[in-house]
Design a protein that fits this description.
This protein has 152 residues and is mainly α. Helix content is 83%, strand content 0%. The protein has six helices and no strands.
Length: 152
């Protein structure tokens, strides 16, 4: 019974770790790799050129690459957290019912109603989590778009 939540948390953690490792590998091939030319080695040899345009550009690109890298990892982490919350929101009532049944207590009908209501809603939560970035993108493209129009 408690193996499923552990498997979910571990699996989503492994996905996040994989994305993070891939981002670290890909950082070598971004804009920073293009900056490693003869101009950068010349400015690296001469530390007194802190105000040169090439040095300023490389600092800006480093900040931009770092913020993009963090944002991609953050998106994966937020989605993993949202899917985990969806699971626990749906199945917490069933877990409560099973724990009460194993304890020998009578499970109230309200708990069984909640199990019956929230069980089918798990797919709805997953749909909302999946479609949320697409709705946000549609709202940002269109000027005066309602949430429903962006969803449809």
């Amino acid at each position: 019974m408690f193996i499923v939540p552990c498997v979910i948390v571990i699996s989503l953690g492994m996905i996040y770790r994989g994305v993070r490792q891939q981002e670290k590998k890909m950082a070598r091939y971004g804009e920073r790799a293009l900056m490693q030319g003869p101009q950068q080695t010349a400015t690296a040899a001469n530390d007194s050129n802190e105000g040169t345009p090439n040095t300023l550009l490389s600092k800006i690109l480093r900040r931009k690459t770092k913020s993009i890298k963090q944002s991609n990892s953050r998106v994966v982490l937020q989605r993993a957290f949202a899917y985990t919350c969806s699971f626990f929101l749906t199945w917490s009532w069933w877990i409560i019912a099973v724990v009460l049944a194993f304890a020998g207590a009578e499970v109230p009908n309200a708990i069984w109603y909640l199990v019956s209501i929230f069980g089918p809603l798990q797919d709805t939560w997953n749909l909302f989590i999946f479609i949320y970035p697409k709705v946000i993108a549609a709202k940002s493209k269109g000027g005066d778009v309602t949430w429903w129009q962006a969803f449809v």
